[in-house]
Amino acid sequence: MTTEQHSISVLGCGNIGLSIAHGLVNSGLYKSNQIILTKRNTESLEKSMGSKGFQVTADNNLAVKKSKVVIVCVTPAQLDSLLESIRSVINPKYHVVISVVSGASIDDISVKLGSSGVAIVRAMPNTAIQYCQSMTCLAVRGTHHVAGRAEIEERKDQALAISEKIFNVLGNCIVLKEEQIVPATALCACGIAFFFRAIRAASQGGIEIGFHAEDAIKIAAQTAKGAATLVLEGGYHPEYEIDKVTTPMGCTIAGLNQMEHNGFSSAMIKGIVTSAEKAASLYSKKQPAPSTTTHHHHAPQAHQQDSASTTTTSTTSTANNNTESKSNNKRRTRNQNKSTRNQQQQQTTESNNTQQEKPDSNNNDQSHEQQQEQAPEQHQPSTASSENNEQQPQQPQQQQQSHQNNNSRRGKSNNSRRSNTKKEQEDPNNPWKKQENNHQHPAPVYDVNSVDEALAKARSRNTHQQNGRGNRRGGSGDGGGGRRHNGNNSRGGGGEGGRRQPHQHQHQQQEAN
Ligand SMILES: NC(=O)C1=CN([C@@H]2O[C@H](COP(=O)(O)OP(=O)(O)OC[C@H]3O[C@@H](n4cnc5c(N)ncnc54)[C@H](OP(=O)(O)O)[C@@H]3O)[C@@H](O)[C@H]2O)C=CC1
Ligand SMILES: O=C(O)[C@@H]1CCC=N1
């Protein structure tokens, strides 16, 4: 397998499309001139990406004809028209279609492409893919759909192998059942935003206790990275690591408990559940087109106000305590649904307001690239774009997937590579942000053999760590799967008292193949 055979195009180069394109190059897996990028309004894409050697076009058909692997990165509202426009040039026996579109099932995509034989992979990455640090969840169609059709089955397997190869180099990937892609959207794709918010909140606390904003962000972000590294590399449960930080009668437990009293874990859990519910409906209830061309430029001040309102909205500690005492899964799920419904009533209004304010897609290309380059002062909230003609009727065949379905087929998981994310140079005008050329992230150059070698090494590393699953411990409230006490230990809101046992992180237990 060579990258030439797997010529690649990214259809719909907005936020995630651009992140993937940068990641493909930063990983060394592709050169920019091997990648075709499309969007309808290509002017700014030409400037920002064409100038770096990427092939830029508005012609999706051309892109598909020149590619083996076609990554579809349009919004759910834009998907149908895109698929209809490329269906005549998709060759089911040749192409691999990878869709990152939230809520659109493989069946939905097959129907729109007019063939059940196309090898389609659903992928749910996050924007850290730009620096080869994405968690990407993959799924292919369940085998019952293609029973007895060996040729299709073979193509599907090949498509999955190609996708795993790509996304393992762009971070870490696992293969799930398709019904888990919607929950994965919340945990993995939306999830990165939740951690950004956590970093921002931490930095705001840092400013209040005396740090300059720039230092506070750096300290908070590196600390978050350190926490993630301990969990991923050490393989221990977060609560085990927390135990090592919390000196008896010390300041850490005092801060943690204060956070839990204010519903920290519960807010995160509810946010994830709400995002999953929303993700499930994104394609079937395609969003109305934006009605204004307003662009939002949030000044740091506005960010802080926003955050303040966020932190004062929590009414979760009661819910948290209530749910902590319920170890029965079904009961916990009912409670989640109830609290989420309440929260969603509120959010529907907010969401509708937000929809009205989305920027128009003619300016969209510019905003995407700006979003990847700009300072926080200029930062816009992430907004999906669509045009007036993109409002689609509801899809009767859409099967909404429940976020509660946890029957996973955990697939192959590899810590395929560690990206060197060291900041090289700072923009004097923008101490927050790396200069554009830092997109060309230093990374080992992979040829296909070295990719295979890298994956093999990652697999052998993982197999060393494949041991018992240890105890799963929920952080608090209605999340997690472990046993809970009624809350004497308020650290994390819901763990067992006393010392925790080492916990092997689940994805490290996967049979690496
Ligand atoms: N943002 C994220 O972090 C993640 C997003 N996703 C999913 O990825 C998809 C894209 O999200 P996001 O990047 O945020 O959205 P964006 O709105 O930023 O990007 C969509 C892009 O598609 C382009 N586009 C629309 N129609 C066409 C068309 N017919 N042909 C070519 N290009 C087209 C638009 O540009 P133009 O108008 O110029 O054509 C736009 O640049 C969504 O389905 C989302 O659910 C999944 C994981 C993470
Ligand atoms: O917010 C969204 O709808 C998309 C899907 C996951 C991340 N961004």
Automatic annotation (TrEMBL):
It comes from Heterostelium pallidum (strain ATCC 26659 / Pp 5 / PN500). Residues 8-102 form the Pyrroline-5-carboxylate reductase catalytic N-terminal domain. It catalyses: L-proline + NADP(+) = (S)-1-pyrroline-5-carboxylate + NADPH + 2 H(+); L-proline + NAD(+) = (S)-1-pyrroline-5-carboxylate + NADH + 2 H(+). Keywords: Amino-acid biosynthesis, NADP, Oxidoreductase, Proline biosynthesis. Belongs to the pyrroline-5-carboxylate reductase family. SUPFAM superfamilies: 6-phosphogluconate dehydrogenase C-terminal domain-like, NAD(P)-binding Rossmann-fold domains. Residues 281-513 are annotated as: Disordered. GO terms for molecular function: pyrroline-5-carboxylate reductase activity. The keyword Chaperone does not apply. Residues 301-326, 336-365, 372-418 have a biased composition (Low complexity). InterPro entries: 6-PGluconate_DH-like_C_sf (IPR008927), NAD(P)-bd_dom_sf (IPR036291), P5C_Rdtase_cat_N (IPR028939), P5CR_dimer (IPR029036), Pyrroline-COOH_reductase (IPR000304). Residues 178-281 form the Pyrroline-5-carboxylate reductase dimerisation domain. Homodecamer; composed of 5 homodimers. Pathway: Amino-acid biosynthesis; L-proline biosynthesis; L-proline from L-glutamate 5-semialdehyde: step 1/1. It holds the Pfam family F420_oxidored. GO terms for biological process: L-proline biosynthetic process. This is pyrroline-5-carboxylate reductase. Its EC number is 1.5.1.2.
